[in-house]
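To whoever picks this up:

The nightly regression suite flagged General stress protein 26 as changed. Nothing in the input moved, so I suspect the structure step. Input below, exactly as stored in the fixture:
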Amino acid sequence: MPLTDTTSQEEYPVAEHGVEKVRELVADEKIAMLTTVGADGSLQSRPMSLQEVEFDGDLWFFAEAQGGPAQSIASNPNVNVTTGSGGSWVSIAGRGSVVTDVAKKKELWNSGAEAWLPQGPEDASVVLIKVDGDSAEYWDTPGAVTTAISFVKAKATGERTHVGENEKVELP
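Regenerated output under the current build:
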């Protein structure tokens, strides 16, 4: 059963609450699904490790320069990133770019990146993928017990269940 949509399909509120909520939901996520558009127009999704930075509408990932994500973004910058855990999910639509700046790679470098890319941040085969988010949509449920109570209430009253929050947000 879907969550209650608090906005219409056409609305994207520029509400600080919405941006803060997206920031809160993305803050502890370590892995996200990055969806790119392939050369043949097909959507291609793969799990990627999110780099730990304060979410300001941008997301960062390490990748190989000749790998699928970087190649797809070079051809078509339209991307989507999804995260989710527990009862919360976030979908961020935006534009991706391949960043080769060594200083930025060194700034974001960590042991997780080193495990996948042992050649290090100075190697030209290592790039960053920057996702500049345009909009986000999130779903946040209050927990299993509250959700179950809401389902029982909906069944008893014959009304649609209202569980959690769903909002579409324009990102800065």
